[in-house]
Every structure is written in structure tokens, then in C-alpha cells.
Design brief:
Layout: E1 5-10, E2 19-23, E3 32-37, E4 40-51, E5 59-60, E6 63-64, H1 73-85, H2 90-96, H3 100-103, E7 114-118, H4 120-125, H5 132-144, E8 147-148, H6 149-156, H7 160-168, E9 172-176, H8 193-201, E10 208-214, H9 220-231, E11 237-241, H10 245-259, E12 263-266, H11 272-283, E13 289-292, E14 304-310, H12 327-338, E15 341-346, H13 351-358, E16 363-367, E17 378-383, E18 389-390, E19 393-394, H14 395-406, E20 410-414, E21 423-426, E22 443-445, E23 450-452, E24 459-461, E25 475-478, H15 482-492, E26 498-501, H16 509-520, E27 526-529, E28 542-547, H17 561-573, E29 583-588, H18 603-617, E30 624-632, H19 635-651, E31 659-671, E32 674-683, H20 686-707, E33 710-715
Parallel strand pairs: 2-5, 10-15, 10-16, 11-13, 11-14, 12-13, 14-15, 17-29, 20-27, 20-28, 26-27, 28-29
Antiparallel strand pairs: 1-2, 1-4, 3-4, 3-6, 7-8, 7-9, 18-19, 21-25, 22-23, 23-24, 30-32, 30-33, 31-32
């Protein structure tokens, strides 16, 4: 008879700590259980098992769902660290590590695809009398060898029951196995001298962190592939993180072509069942490489040998709501805990990463030139104060575009503002298209004939007359969005094949992949779009890239604004001239701004200037920050909750050496009907901040409860709210 035990369970609720239950069934740490919680029944994960001491008032576990740990000790150590560091409830942190079916309590059952092949009896049966369908199926297998069931059923119009009948006859046999991303095998290219030197310097075992700092087009991805091949030769596994869904499939296909299909993918657009299958394949050691977006940092591995974070500077690695973790930083922690090497790659490394490299704490490898024997693209900064322009494009730029198209090349126009126009205004009375729920303007979308708020999602029809003064001819669309730019391009280049790539035109990763395939196939002459185009894509025939409006990033209230613009300029410009001479054009009204020097000099020069400014101002990475956030319909209540948090914490002696900024309204005070404010705290380093952060968060939660406001904690914030 099993002894009664007390188990501590992490439940999926925004509450601190674990909750204790009684359990009379065998259970292990890391297993899922179904437990009563208030009026609900929830799926939690056991984090501790102990002998009974005081059981007064404890409820019983209703069901143990796993006979063995679903999350191993290494994963749980990472999750505990993340919950502690980011001050987020452990139950919600644990949920982030599980695929949706497992969160819902479904059994860990694998529905692996079956593969069929002929037996010797099946080969012999071909000489006998067969029905037409039987003959066709046997002939198909004789020609193709082992075949996926889906392909066999499609080719022969066969049902599963019909195939099972052939199996009972002894003509066919099948086996179920996991299959990763499919791709035709390709030979590895020859490394240049810099790539070979970087690969030789990468460690094969033991914990270390390396920054691979290479200009765009320098061949960082090929170094990743060679390193992965080395680490996985005897069954080892590698995690490859990428910032965007659109990059997952392209990188996975390149890897699969070299690793015979042992590549799994993970991202939020993947169907729940497929995501679970890949999660289990990684856990079983069947997948050698997992390519995924930020949540893949929590994936289980049977034999993890190394981690790669591509485009490590990218802000997409930071979760912006709920559990606000940074996948790159957790990758550093996971590599240290697992004792494996970590490789961070970027053409524009973040200042945080460069600080470690410059200090000598992390290895710093450089790829200073492009892999192909092609010079970096020529750069032209256009002063839009004096340039003649039509529809947002300078005439001089349009002449250069025509020359590039006439030479058989492709053109990319980058504008990080979707929609037709960012503002609808009435010249007669001054009315503007303000969002009714946000302190922001609604963007004009002519395709749907709607005004849309890009912050809360609200939409309404574009008015034909001014809502304020009823003027019929005073309404004007102000500014430039990608839809309006597309209209200009179509008018100026009527013969060109134009493709707009933004989240209005493409809503799924499959659609985006199809669009990128069109570009590679040469079916597109002019590509225009938003930041989706800036992330790691290799377009061999792209001759000219133009940044249509570089100035919008120069007016940011965020001290990271110039760093982000410098990275964007390099990343977007780096798409041009990968395999032929290229050009980068920048339209700006501030051509003298020093940030544009990043296009003609080493990125590190700009990075050192920005780092020096941050050091003087005492800003990260030379300090550590945490932002305490609050929201409610009543602005005064939000400000009071944060002010009481600050005053109470300071009176309790918390953060005597910290700097306290605020509370202050958010950059956009009202969003989706909620008033928002923040209290920013800054300390000399992360350790001093982390020591007292739990006490500060306790004060925040107490005041949030007293004032009935919603609160959140953002450790190492990348943006001002």
C-alpha cells in the first residue's frame, strides 16, 4: 500500500509559490497532476514530494497523469531560475515550457507517421493474379522503396484498413517513426579563411560563450551548420534559436539538407499536435536539432551539446507581456547549467553582449568580410529637405530603381509602417482619427476601408464626411504607409511585379514562406514591406535596397532608440548586393545625424560611441533596471498604487542605493481603455537589484491588491511602456 505523501504543485495561476496537496499514488517530481483549485480542476506540475507532517486542510490530488517525470531536473532548474529572476509566478513559468496538449492534461501519446515497404512475399505476389489497385500499390512500393503512409494512400487511393489487409496477407510491413523537416541533400560549400578560422576556434565541449560578430552576408549560418554537424555526430543535440517565425523554416530546411531530416521546429504558428510531436522527439533524442523561436529555450533535450542564438540582438527574443523573459539571456543560463557551449551570432550585436566580449568574459570571433567575393554595397544618403519626390519616393531614387530593374536585378523598399496613412485629419476643423480607447491615432487602411488602431486592434469604417464638422472635402490622409507606398510604386513602375510583405498582406508563416519563395524564384521585381524584411533573408538577386523613411526612429523617447536604428540600418542594408554589386539608399531629413555613419564604417565604431554615452549617463548595460507596471481605468488610482509602493519600500529600507524614477504615466498613457503608469528602478548591477527585488515586488503586489489595479514586473526592460 502506497504511503501518503505531501506534494507541492505549481498551478497555472498568477499566484506566487506552490500549493500543497495530499497524494496516495506514486508520483515523482516533474510529473503532471490534476488537482482541485478553488472551484476549478487544474493541471499542475509537481515540484517537490515530502513525507507528511501537518496535513490539516490539505486537499487531495485527484489524478497523477504521468508515471515518469515530464520535466527533468535540468528543465526544472531553469524554470525555477526564470521564475525567481523575472519575479513571475512559478506555475505560469512552468506552463510556458509545455505544449498546449500537455497543459490541458492530455496523455503523452505519440501518433508517429507510419512508413510502408514491400516484403519478399509482396515482391513474389506481383507475379500472381492481383486486382488493379493491389498491383498499383505493390508496383508503387517496388519503385519507391519505403514510403510514408500519406504518400502511399494518396498515390493509390488506399484507406488505412485496406493497407492493413495487405499487411495481414504478408505483402507489406510498416513501422512508425518520427520524421523531421524534409529536404533534399546538398553538398556543403567550401569555407573561406575567416569562416574556417572561426569554426576552428569554437569549443566542442564544456561551458563557454562565444560571440560570432560578422558583417551581413559573411557566412555566419554556414559556420552554425558546420558546428552543429560536429556537435551532433554521435547523437548529440543542438538548440538553434531564431527571432522570427519566418526564419524558422528556411534555417530548418538548410539544416535538414545536411542532417538527413533529423531537424525539428517549434514556433507559435505550428499546430498543437505537430508542436507536441516535435517536443517529444527532442525529449526522446530522435531530433538532433531543434530550430525555434524564443519559447524553444525551455524545450527538453536528451543530450544537449550546444546552443546557438541567431540575431542575438533582436528584440523579438524578449516576451512583452505575461511572463516577460528574454530567451537569449535564459539561453546563457541554460548553457551554464548544462555545461555546454553557447554561440551568439549577429552582424549588429547588442551593447549588453558586446560588453561581455570587450571585457574578455566571452570569446569574440569576427567575420569582417562577405563570404562571396563581393564588396559591401555602395551607400547613398538622400537629403529629403531638398530632394524632388513623388508619393514618398525621391526622383533620384526612382531613377536608380529603374537602372537596377533594367539590369535584371530586384529592388527592396523598407518602410516600417503598415497601412495606407498613419493619420486621417480634417483641414476644416482639425479633427483627427484618434482611437477611442488609446492615446494614439487610428491608421487608414484603404484595402479594407477601415481605420485601425495598431495598439488595441479596434477598427471602424473610414468616414466619408468629417465626424466633427460634417465637411465633405476637408478630410486628408496624412503620412505614408506600406499600402500607400505600394500605390506609388504601381503608378511609377507599371510594368514591374510588386510584392508587399507585411502583417496586413500575410497573416500566417506559410503565406510568408510562399512570398519569400516568390522572391527567390525571380517572380518579383520590387519587394516592399516592414521589419519582416530585415531579418536574415538571403535574396541573391537583390541589387538595391532603400530605407524610405529613416527619421521615424530618430524621435524615440527610449534611450535605446538610436541603437535599434543603427541595427536596423545595417540589417536592412545588408540584404543588398549579396552576390552582385549592390546599393543602399536612405531617405532622411537629417543626413548629418551620426547614426548614418554605421552604413559606411564598422558597426562596432557606432556601438562604442553609444556605449560611451550610456556609461556617462549610467544607463544599461552599465546598470540594471526593473520596471514596475500598473494599469486601471482610473489614472489616479494607478499612480497612487505605484507611489505607495515606492514610499513603502523606501521606508522599509529597500533599495537604499537604487535610483527611483517615477511613478510616471506610460509613454502611451491610455491603451485599450486602461490607464497605464510605470515606476522605473535602477541599480548599479543586477546582483544588487536581484537581492532586494522580491521585497519590492511584494510591496507592489500588496498595493495592487489594495488599490485593485493590475500590476506587472519587467526585469531588464527593453522598451519604456
Amino acid at each position: 500500500m502506497t504511503a501518503m505523501r505531501k506534494v507541492s504543485v505549481a498551478v497555472p495561476r498568477p499566484l506566487a509559490g506552490c500549493f500543497d496537496y495530499l497524494c496516495d499514488s506514486p508520483v515523482t517530481v516533474g510529473a503532471r497532476v490534476r488537482v482541485p483549485f478553488g472551484r476549478d480542476r487544474v493541471i499542475g506540475v509537481v515540484l517537490a514530494v515530502a513525507a507528511m507532517d501537518d496535513t490539516d486542510g490539505l486537499k487531495a490530488v485527484e489524478a497523477v497523469l504521468d508515471s515518469a517525470p515530464l520535466l527533468d531536473a535540468a528543465q526544472l532548474a531553469l524554470l525555477r531560475f526564470a521564475a525567481r529572476y523575472y519575479q513571475h509566478p512559478i506555475g505560469e513559468v512552468v506552463q510556458a515550457a509545455l505544449p498546449v496538449p500537455l497543459r490541458e492534461g492530455r496523455p503523452v501519446l505519440r501518433q508517429l507517421p507510419r512508413r510502408w515497404r514491400l516484403t519478399e512475399a509482396g515482391v513474389a505476389a506481383q507475379a500472381g493474379r492481383l486486382g488493379a489497385k493491389q498491383a498499383a500499390a505493390l508496383a508503387f512500393l517496388a519503385e519507391h522503396g519505403e514510403v510514408d503512409e500519406a504518400a502511399l494512400r494518396e498515390a493509390c487511393a488506399a484507406s488505412p484498413a485496406w493497407l492493413m489487409d495487405l499487411q495481414r496477407r504478408g505483402w507489406l510491413t510498416c513501422h512508425a517513426s518520427w520524421r523531421g523537416v524534409a529536404a533534399e541533400a546538398v553538398a556543403a560549400p567550401t569555407l573561406n579563411e575567416a569562416q574556417a578560422a572561426a569554426l576552428a576556434a569554437l569549443p566542442q565541449a564544456g561551458h563557454s560563450v562565444t560571440l560570432l560578430d560578422g558583417v551581413t552576408g559573411s557566412g555566419k549560418t554556414e559556420v552554425y551548420l558546420r558546428w552543429i554537424e560536429r556537435l551532433s555526430t554521435d547523437g548529440g543535440q543542438v538548440l538553434l534559436l531564431v527571432p522570427e517565425i519566418g526564419l524558422v523554416q528556411a534555417l530548418a530546411a538548410r539544416l535538414a539538407a545536411r542532417l538527413a531530416g533529423q531537424v525539428a521546429v517549434s514556433h507559435s504558428a505550428l499546430a498543437d499536435g505537430a508542436r507536441l510531436d516535435n517536443w517529444l522527439a527532442v525529449r526522446a533524442g530522435e531530433a538532433q536539432v531543434l530550430v525555434g523561436t524564443r519559447s524553444a529555450v525551455f524545450a527538453p533535450f536528451a543530450d544537449l551539446r550546444g546552443i546557438i542564438v541567431d540575431e542575438e540582438h533582436d528584440g523579438a527574443y524578449k516576451q512583452q507581456d505575461g511572463f516577460r523573459y528574454h530567451a537569449r539571456d535564459l539561453a546563457v543560463v541554460r548553457a551554464r547549467q548544462a555545461g555546454v557551449p553557447l554561440l551568439l551570432g549577429s552582424a549588429t550585436p547588442s551593447l549588453e553582449t558586446l560588453q561581455h566580449a570587450w571585457a574578455g568574459a566571452w570569446q569574440h570571433l569576427r567575420l569582417p568580410a562577405r563570404a562571396a567575393t563581393v564588396a559591401l554595397p555602395a551607400v547613398r544618403i538622400l537629403d529629403m529637405r531638398s530632394a524632388e519626390a513623388s508619393g514618398g519616393l525621391a526622383h533620384e531614387l526612382m531613377r536608380a530603381m529603374r537602372q537596377a530593374l533594367a539590369a535584371g536585378g530586384q529592388v527592396m523598399l523598407f518602410l516600417n509602417r503598415r497601412g495606407y496613412a498613419p493619420l486621417l485629419r480634417c483641414d476644416a476643423c482639425g479633427w483627427c482619427s484618434e482611437c477611442p480607447a488609446c492615446d494614439a491615432m487610428m491608421t487608414v487602411h484603404t484595402a479594407s476601408r477601415q481605420l485601425q488602431c495598431h495598439h488595441c486592434g479596434r477598427a471602424q469604417p473610414v468616414p466619408l464626411r468629417c465626424p466633427a464638422c460634417d465637411s465633405s472635402d476637408g478630410l486628408q490622409m496624412i503620412g505614408l504607409g506600406t499600402q500607400r507606398l505600394e500605390q506609388t510604386v504601381a503608378r511609377q513602375f507599371p510594368q514591374a511585379r510588386v510584392l508587399r510583405i507585411d502583417s496586413d498582406a500575410f497573416t500566417t508563416s506559410r503565406q510568408f514562406e510562399a512570398a519569400v519563395a516568390q522572391v527567390h524564384a525571380g517572380a518579383v521585381d520590387i519587394i516592399l514591406g516592414t521589419q519582416w524584411l530585415s531579418k536574415g533573408h538571403h535574396f541573391p538577386n537583390l541589387h538595391l535596397v532603400a530605407i524610405v523613411d529613416a527619421d521615424q526612429a530618430l524621435f524615440s523617447v527610449d534611450y535605446r532608440g538610436e541603437e535599434r536604428l543603427a541595427q536596423l540600418l545595417v540589417q536592412v542594408g545588408g540584404r543588398a548586393g549579396r552576390e552582385t554589386a549592390g546599393q543602399v539608399w536612405v531617405q532622411t531629413r537629417q543626413p548629418q545625424h551620426p547614426v548614418f555613419g554605421v552604413l559606411t564604417a564598422l558597426y562596432e565604431t557606432t556601438a562604442r560611441r553609444l556605449d560611451s554615452e550610456r556609461h556617462t549617463a549610467g544607463l544599461p548595460p552599465h546598470s540594471a533596471q526593473v520596471s514596475l507596471l500598473a494599469r486601471h481605468r482610473d489614472a489616479a488610482r494607478v499612480m497612487q498604487a505605484l507611489a505607495f509602493t515606492r514610499d513603502g519600500a523606501q521606508a522599509a529600507g529597500i533599495g537604499r542605493d537604487w535610483q527611483w524614477f517615477g511613478p510616471a504615466p506610460a509613454v502611451m498613457p491610455r491603451k485599450d481603455g486602461q490607464q497605464r503608469a510605470q515606476l522605473l528602478v535602477q541599480a548599479a548591477d543586477k546582483s544588487s537589484l536581484q537581492r532586494e527585488l522580491p521585497q519590492l515586488v511584494a510591496w507592489l503586489q500588496a498595493q495592487a491588491k489594495a488599490f485593485r489595479v493590475r500590476c506587472a514586473v519587467d526585469v531588464d526592460p527593453l522598451w519604456l511602456e
